Amino acid sequence: MTEKIQKAFVVYCSPAGSTRHVSRIIVKKLQEMEIEVIECDLSKKFSETSIITKINRVKSNACLFVGSPVYVSHAIPPVMNFIARLQKNPHMPVVPFVTWGGATSGIALYEMGKALTKKDMRVVGGAKILARHSMMWQMENPLGENHPDKTGDQMIQKMITGICGKLSDGGNGSIDLSVLSYYPPDIVAEMKKMTLKKAKSHMPKRKVDEDACTECKECSSVCPTDAISFTPYPEFEKNCIFCFNCVKICPEDAIQADFSKVEKRIKDRAELFKETPPSQIFI
Ligand SMILES: Cc1cc2nc3c(=O)[nH]c(=O)nc-3n(C[C@H](O)[C@H](O)[C@H](O)COP(=O)(O)O)c2cc1C
Question: Hey, how many other C-beta atoms are within 10 angstroms of the C-beta on 246?
């Protein structure tokens, strides 16, 4: 049976923009192939429920792409929560993709693939793409600088052509999920133990300078998880994912965090894992 893709869903969360960049490359390539695309940025309020309804209705000839940055070796909670909310759908081929900041892409891709197969979906491809490390934006030599680059973009385009080709050729198209788990079992076990929640204690603490804060709420407008409340100054709720967009955007520099200890820890991890290749597609 051929399965010519006619419609695609591209769903992602991208606090610092790299995953959005990769998503845009996917969207553009699909549109060039005259495939109808429905795009959803999970950080935009109210968009998630409507896309889930549309995905649940699909019976054939569609494909779902789901993208996340890697945080502490995992996909981020908004993306995993989105996957958890999907209904089982054996008609849906699916492609997880991640951007990572040069330390380790960890088990994010594998965990996304596993969660999607629990929804009876067929994982027909995947990608990990090197990007600038979003926690190193103030540093002189951030890991992943100048990425995603042209090579990453071309890999993504090749992945789309490959996936659409193999599905329309009539194959089932599934990849073996184990290819998405490229670390040895002992390292995987360690990565499983260290979650974003547990890593909270290593994250730079934010301090709000109440004299400088003008209560403009810009910080809240860029928060991907709507985790900032005002009393009247910003306070960070439990669902904060530590993207630090609030620190980056504040026009008064009223939200401060000390990243001086972070650089060494990230670079040590990069040195420890020496992950290669930087970008890779799985088809
Ligand atoms: C809290 C936090 C944790 C991160 N953890 C990792 C990590 O474990 N490994 C890694 O290589 N990059 C890590 N990064 C960097 C991001 O994965 C990378 O910059 C990604 O491309 C960001 O995607 P975005 O631009 O779509 O937000 C982390 C970034 C943040 C803010």
Answer: 23
Mean pLDDT per block of 10 residues along the chain (283 residues) reads 86 98 98 97 87 92 97 98 96 96 98 98 98 95 96 98 92 93 96 94 94 97 97 96 98 95 94 97 97
Pairwise CA distance, residues 264 & 270, whole Å: 10
Give the predicted TM-score (pTM) of the model: 0.97
Q: Are strands 7-12 and 36-41 parallel, antiparallel or unpaired?
A: parallel
Q: What's the gap in Å between 90 CA and the centre of ligand 1?
A: 31
CA 163 from centre of chain: 20
Strands 255-257 and 206-208: antiparallel
Q: Which domain holds residue 233?
A: 205-257
Domain assignment present for residue 265? The answer is no
Q: Are residues 96 and 157 in the same domain?
A: yes
Output the pLDDT for position 2. 65
CA of 31 to the centre of ligand 1 (A): 28
Give the domain CATH number at 240.
3.30.70.20
Q: Is residue 172 part of a domain?
A: yes
